[in-house]
Structures are given as C-alpha cells and as structure tokens.
Amino acid sequence: MADEMENEFMKRGYLLPKGCKDLSDAWMKPPALAVRLPQPDISIPLPPVIGEMVVPAQMTVAKLAEALREKPYRIIADLMQVGVFAMVSQQLAFEQISVVLRKFGYIAQKQD
Question: Could you tell me which of 33, 38, 53, 31 has the C-alpha nearest to residue 97?
C-alpha cells in the first residue's frame, strides 16, 4: 500500500513545486519572488510637429479622441504604450494628454 502511495506522488510530482509532496505543502510554501516585467518602451520615434493644440488641464479620453478626430480605442492604446490604463470616460491629466498629442504630431498648451 505504501509503495502505491509513493508511486502516486511520483506520477503527479511534475505538477507540484520542488520539495512539495502534496497540495498542502505547496500551499504552505512561501511564494517565489515575483518576476519583474520590463518597463514600457517610451522611446518610440515621434512624428514631426505639425502644430499646437490648446487643451484644458483635464480632459476625458473621449473628448481627446474627438479633438484628434480618432477613435477612442486608438487613444487608449497609445496610453497603454506609456503605462497608463484608462477608460473612455476617464479624466486624463495634462501630462498624459501632452504625451498622446505628441504621438500625433501636436504640442500641447494648457488652456488658461
């Protein structure tokens, strides 16, 4: 009976972390160090400047997309490339707006 039990653990051993003989050992084992993901690459070549755009200090993704005559999902994708996760109705800070505008060839100026 003991041989059957040991054999069973050996068959399933590839599913468990090293040094664990069953799930309770795996549960009690401290987690491994988290893997660090690389930072987003923001050194994407930018298009030449084609103009300036006056924008308020805060603006939603939808309003920014409307001002650029783009679809909101394009603006969201550009924000994701620089590490900002936003929804269509979310307010963006001026710094975030200026990064997106620069990707489309505009320089942002804050509205008074």
Answer: 53
In the block, tokens 């109705």 appear at 89
State the average pLDDT over residues 52-57: 94
CA angle 64, 65, 69 (to 5 degrees): 120
Instruction: State the pTM of this model.
Output: 0.60
Cα gap 69→76, rounded to integer Å: 14
Who wins on pLDDT, 92 or 19? 92
Which residues have C-beta within 8 Å of that of residue 34, sequence separation ≥ 6?
none
Identify whether the C-beta of residue 51 lies closer than 8 Å to the C-beta of residue 82: no
| Residues 73-94 as b or e (16 or more Cβ within 10 Å = b) | eebbebbeeeebebeeeeebeb
